[in-house]
Structures are given as C-alpha cells and as structure tokens.
Predict the structure.
Amino acid sequence: MTILTLKEVFLEDSEMNEVAVSPEEAESGNLAIFLVRQPGAFMAVIYNPNEFDEYITNPGHDDRFIKGMIRSYKNEYCLAYEVKTVAALRGYGPMLYQLLSSRIGWIVSDRREVTEMAENIWKWMYNHPQVWMKEKLMEVNEAKTPLDYRYKWLKTNPSFNKMVGLNETTRKLLAEKHNISVKEINDIIVKTAEKFFDKRFF
C-alpha cells in the first residue's frame, strides 16, 4: 500500500471522499483499534492483527501492520482534546479523526502550529456540518478560519466498537501464542505507532 502524508490524502473534498476508508470497510478487513486513555491524554491506533502477529514473530519486519495513529491531549481552555500527532496510510486519515471524536467528544487543532497537511482535514470538517458539529472557540473574537472552531463527530458507528473488541481478543491471543504479557503487546503497538509517525514526518 502506498504511504502518503495527510497533505496528499486530503487535497480535494471529492478525492478525500473517494479514497477514505470507512469504519465498515475497516471492520470487514478485520482491522483492530487499540486505545490508550490516560488522564488528559488519548491515543488510538488502527492495525491489522494478522500482520501484527507476523511482526512479533519477526521483529525485523516492517511496520505495515499499523494503518494509522492519532494522539491528543486535553485542552481545558478550549474545552476539547487538542490533536497533536497524526499519521496514516492512504485513506485512513479521516477515520482517525472520526474515531477520536466518537470516543472523547470535542476536538480542536494544535493551538501552537498547524501544518498545511493537517489544515486540510480541518477545512473538510468545517465544510461538512451534516456530520461535524462546530463551535467557535471562546478565545477567538471573530472566526476567520476553520482552525477557530472546535469540532464534534455527529455519527455513531458500531464498527468502531467491534474493532475495539477485536483488539482485546487479539492482544490476549498473541500474548499466549508468543509467551509474553499483554503489557508487552501494548508496548509494542505504542512504540511501533510512534516510529510509524516519526518515519513519515521527520
């Protein structure tokens, strides 16, 4: 699968709709969702359990089992979770934002710096009020760009819950198969997702 940056994935609205992988498609592809919730922080990773099994068997294998990752931190002032890092294979980016908001509610762009790549997805949210609710940030006197709002995904999707459930089953089975702890399985997913991001943006 071709690896693209967010800028390449989110160039045009029509193109985004065409290439975006839906939760239903991800579920039918037997993908799993790994979630890490800590006080004031939330991370999600979409991965392929079968390819993850191969990766554990052969640690020198590439990170292709990771399909996308997103990390956010609670911004008390904006009353939303601030998206800090996102990386995805082609088509998985939109679903990461939907997944994040479906789990923690309001999300907002990085308040310090937003790359051109990331700005495109916020523009897409702004232009789709039928699925993304938006509210002007209190810190903004007059909203001038899509980054002056916080957003919430309006849909519920049972596919997310099914993929989260598959993750729970996968981690237990692979821990038993490879004679390691579930915590070690968790650490492998997180560390590989972080490397997945670093390889694409640094």
Q: What stands out?
A: Residues 6-201 form one domain. The two ends are 20 Å apart (CA to CA). DSSP finds eight helices and seven strands in the chain. The chain has one domain: 6-201.
